[in-house]
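Notebook, bench 3.
Goal today: get a predicted structure for Sulfite oxidase-like oxidoreductase from Dyadobacter psychrotolerans so we can plan the truncation constructs. The sequence was checked against the plasmid map this morning, with no discrepancies at the termini. Length recorded as 230 residues. Pasting the sequence as submitted so the record is complete.
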Amino acid sequence: MEEKDKLDKIVEARLKLKARFEEKMKDTPSVSDPRPMGTGETNRHGMPKLPIGQIKTVKWPVLDLGFKPDVSLLQWKLIIDGEVENPVELSWRDFMDLPQTEDVSDFHCVTTWSRMDVPWKGVKLADLAALVVPKPTATHVLCHAYDKYTTNLSLEEALKEDVLLVHTADEKPLERDHGGPVRMITPQLYAWKGSKWIKRIEFLPKNKLGFWEERGYSNTAYPWRNDRYS
C-alpha cells in the first residue's frame, strides 16, 4: 500500500505540473517550430530526424572536461533542492525505487554528430520534479555534476516526457565515459544540456548560466535552429 501511495502522489503531482507548464511546452521550438531545419523523416515531435549541420554516427564519441569522476553506486547521491516544497537527497536504492521509464530517442551533440535511436532506461525528470514539488516561483533548473560541470534548462524544457536521468543505455549500465552511473539526456536539445555524472538538480527562480553557457554556448540550444552559440 505504501508503494502505491507513493506512486499515486507522484502521478498526481506530475499531472499538476503538466497542467502548469503544458502551454509553455507546446510553444517551445522543439515541438512547434513552423520551419525546422533538418532532413529525413519526422521524429515524435514533428521535427526532421536529423537536425541541420549534424552527421549520423554509430559510435558514441567521448567528450568531457578532462576528468571522469569514478562514483560508486554506494557513494552516489542525487540532491534535488532550491525552489521546491520537499527537497530530497536520494541514494542509489531510492533512485531505483522510483518509477522507471524505458524510451528510445536521439542524441545530438553540438560538435555536429548525432547518434540515433538509442534505447535508454531511467527516471523522468518530471517524476523527480513531482517528488519535490517546485514552488510557483521556480522557472529553471541548474544541473550540477560530480566533475563540477553545470548546465541550465527552463522548466518547460526540463519537464518534457523524454527528458530522463538515465542509468542504462544500449541495454547496458551507463558507462563511466558517458556519465555513469547516471546522466541526464535532453533529446530535444543539444546534448551538453544533459549533465553527465549528475549529482544535484537545483530549482531556481530565474535563469542562471552553466559552464558552457558562460563560455559562449547558446542558452537555449535548439538543434533544428542551428542554435549552437550565443
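The helical segments are 2-26, 29-32, 92-97, 125-132, 155-158. The longest helix spans residues 2-26.
Flagging this for group meeting.
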